[in-house]
Amino acid sequence: MPSPSVQSSLILPDLHARWPFPSIRSHLAQTIPLETQAWIESLGVLSAPLRKKFEASNFGELASIAHVHVSDAEKYRVCCDFLSLLFIMDDTTDDLGVNEVKAVFAIATDALKNHDKPRPIGENPIGELHRSFSERLHKVSRQNVMERFVLNYDLYAKAVIAEAEDREANKIRSLDSYLAIRRDTGGVICCFDLHLLCTEVPDEILRDEHLRRLETLGLDMICIGNDILSFNVEYARGDLHNAVVIVMHENNLSIQEAISFVEILYQKMVDEFCRIAIHDLPACGSVTTRNAIRMYVAGITSWVTANYEWSLDCRRYFPGGRNPADTNWVVPLIRRQK
């Protein structure tokens, strides 16, 4: 692999130069995230370092674009809560060993599936975080959506445990193997499920191959887009679960060459996604169902848009707080930690 020492800066691609879907924000974004923030604070789940990262991340902004089509305040609150929950789980488990990650998710999944059962005194507050979230979700969810959500959360938990195993073994996956697990490690498929709170898409339609492909493409664009924009900070701290890092290793490429490689892959996904969304959605005779399918797809497109827009403005990835679009997409390369 070529040495990164010859580089002092990165040129990031404008991934959405040809993305045709707009960035629209929810009218609920001024109030509901404050309720979510108060809920998180009440649980005592944030350590001082986690609180600092949490406050810098502005998850209310991410939710305002990702869930713009959720107009009901109670359902929007559930979406905001889950986004915060996901990032707390991500930051909590990032540096834990495999057994510790398993223990955290054992508490989380038990609480998620038993919302009417009080949590043990002295338990990790992750338990009450999930129980109280699940209680709110049950109030606004249909049974089939709840079952789908819990199933996908289980896949998320297994993927994060597998990521911890890779981290412990210092394992670098192939790109295909990485994408297969990365689709689940972000928990975004659960966020797609939350769009079904507002629209009823029959289960047989959700199993349609074209709709499933749209979900996969949406997840992959979210993962790859995030990996490109977060690469600088993740590579600096030695993370191996990043598409750019994997392509560098797999194809013996420099940082800039790997970013270009992954950008091309992303643009191919954009083209396929748009073709399916415009020409190959599942056919059905019901106007109501047809509109429900379109609303679900609109939810996926909003998530792809939100991930990109939020990442550009996020201090998690650009500590100086400066959007790379304002610097002609050139950013200083962060020195790797020893």
Automatic annotation (TrEMBL):
One of its GO terms (molecular function) is metal ion binding. The keyword Transport does not apply. Keywords: Lyase, Magnesium, Metal-binding. Its EC number is 4.2.3.-. GO terms for biological process: isoprenoid biosynthetic process. Its cofactor is Mg(2+). Transmembrane segments: none annotated. Belongs to the terpene synthase family. PANTHER family: BETA-PINACENE SYNTHASE-RELATED, TERPENE SYNTHASE. This is Terpene synthase. It comes from Favolaschia claudopus.
